[in-house]
Design a protein that fits this description.
Blueprint (H helix, E strand, L loop, with lengths): L5 E9 L8 H9 L3 E11 L5 E4 L24 H10 L4 E10 L3 H9 L12 H10 L1
Antiparallel strand pairs: 1-4, 2-3, 2-4
Length: about 140
Amino acid sequence: MAIGPVDVYVIGFPGNKFSGQIVPAIMEQVEAGVIRVLDVLFVMKDAEGTVVTLAIEDLDADGAAFAELDIASPGALNDEDADEVADDLPLDSSALLIAYENIWMTNIVLAFAAAEAVVINQVRIPVDVVAAVIDAG
């Protein structure tokens, strides 16, 4: 079975408010067959610097929308990932780590394998950098 490339996004939420407002956009991509959510991890740092990881059930009513996501590989993101993110997380803020497979790439991955081609590198250019280049052009 071919697997598409996997991305992990770290999304910050100032004030420790996990907003479920992003769930419909994620679900739209899942339902369209573009991505498959592998795992999510919620990391929270309070005003004193104490860091905890949260389960979906621990989120407030707004964050509860994340329960709608079908998680394919629970536990793929772990305490080590949480620790790495927590080091850079500002006080009184939270982060959502979301790992997803780019299903849209599966046929391309199969074509690479059939051609005995090897991916040497993959670079993701941040949206703000792309926007700045386009605006400057």
